[in-house]
Design brief:
The protein is α/β, with parallel strands linked by helices. The protein has helices spanning about 45-50, 100-105, 135-140, 150, 160-170, 185-195, 210-215, 230-240, 260-265, 290, 310-315, 335-345, and strands at about 5-15, 15-25, 35-40, 70-75, 85-90, 95, 115, 130-135, 140, 175-180, 200-205, 220-225, 250-255, 270-275, 295-300, 325-330, 350-355. The strands form four sheets. Strands 3, 4, 5, 8, 9, 16 and 17 form a seven-stranded mixed beta sheet that branches. It has a six-stranded parallel beta sheet with strand order 12-11-10-13-14-15, with helices on both faces. Strands 1-2 form a two-stranded antiparallel ribbon.
């Protein structure tokens, strides 16, 4: 039983406002719930999208945070896979495991009222000291003793996103890959794509520091900077030259910029796969007459976080390592300063950790 009554939490107030405030420590509501003592959380780009009103389903008054790890401190009577004291990573998605979509592995579209991305969006999340996890047997992943909290932190969200994107991209060995966007999710997409042994991985971004960082970490072979606004024809010509004068076999659009959707289909070769990972703040145009005859396959949507056990095993075996993403960390009590740094991309920030 938790004796603490109140806790610090980062709350979305609505109308572009996020605050650090005090909230009651959550209690179990359902027998399938678990209560987690958060040991590490982080700020995600999706939190910034919520702040700016770009996530219509987000509910004002909700505690933010959907990317965190912690310790199980209480379980409901119908939780069977976890025990008090277990160290766990939390899945970004809430899913029942029994509906039509869950049984197909499409957990992002779980038919439960709180199914899909709920934590830190529609129900209270983990930028806090404690968090209630619905359907805990599905929404938690045990962290092995050999894996640190920092190494496990991104398992349930951005690393799941990159891993899922690589899977649905149908990557094959020796293909050419372009990732548009060298932010945290772009970096996770690159390291996941690397598992499929591409012959060449190109990353495109407007930030020269992030491009250099991706290359230094061994995630990208070639970089292309759009800082000085090259024309779309120039970008297309560069990619074609690097990809057998055809264009990329697989393109991952992770940036969500004003012209990056157009860039994705322009730089793809005919019959290529384009995976749209980005969350856009504005509607995008699909100019079918312009791309007629390229026979492109588009795959889009929110991550199906169905592979957390696989990901944790790859982390434990040294095949995936996201420690390079952690550039900043601070106490939860200093979260508003961290939000300013992260939202405005100051000090070359990639991921900002919050420690309760």
């Amino acid at each position: 039983m938790i004796k603490q009554k109140n806790m610090q939490a980062v709350v979305y107030k609505g109308n572009g406002e996020v605050i650090l405030t005090e909230r009651p420590v959550p209690k179990l509501i359902d027998p399938k719930d678990a209560l987690i003592k958060v040991t590490l959380s982080t700020i995600c780009s999706s939190d910034i999208h919520i702040k700016h009103g770009s996530v219509p389903k987000a509910i004002p008054g909700t505690i933010l945070g959907h990317e965190f790890v912690g310790e199980v401190v209480e379980i409901g009577s119908d939780v069977h896979n976890f025990s008090v004291g277990d160290r766990v990573a939390v899945n970004v998605e809430t899913f029942c495991g029994d509906c039509f979509f869950c049984k197909q592995g499409f957990v992002n579209n779980c038919e439960d009222k709180n199914g899909g991305w709920a934590l830190g969006c529609r129900i209270d999340g983990g930028q806090s000291e404690y968090c209630r996890i619905p359907y805990a047997d599905n929404g938690l992943t045990r962290i092995p003793d050999t894996v640190s909290d920092e190494a496990a932190l991104f398992t349930g969200d951005i690393l799941s996103t990159g891993y899922w994107a690589a899977k649905i991209g149908d990557l094959k060995p020796a293909q050419t890959v372009v990732v548009i966007g060298a932010g945290p999710t772009g970096l996770c997409t690159m390291m996941s794509a690397r598992l499929y042994s591409p012959s060449k991985l190109i990353v495109i971004d407007h930030d020269p520091y992030r491009l250099q960082y991706a290359k230094e970490q061994g995630l990208a072979d070639i970089t292309y900077c759009t800082e000085h606004n090259p024309s779309m024809d120039e970008i297309e010509t560069f990619v074609k030259k690097e990809c057998n004068n055809r264009g990329a076999d697989v393109v991952f659009e992770v940036a969500g910029g004003k012209n990056t959707f157009e860039m994705a289909w322009r730089i793809a070769r005919a019959n290529a796969n384009i995976v749209v990972v980005a969350l856009y703040e504005e509607a995008q145009t699909l100019p079918l007459p312009d791309m007629y005859g390229k026979n492109l396959t588009f795959k889009t949507g929110g991550v199906d976080g169905s592979y957390c056990d696989e990901i944790m095993e790859l982390i434990a075996n040294g095949k995936l390592d996201t420690n390079c993403l952690i550039t900043h960390q601070t106490a939860l009590s200093d979260a508003m300063h961290a939000y300013d740094i992260f939202e405005n991309k100051k000090d070359h920030v990639i991921k900002y950790l919050l420690k309760p």
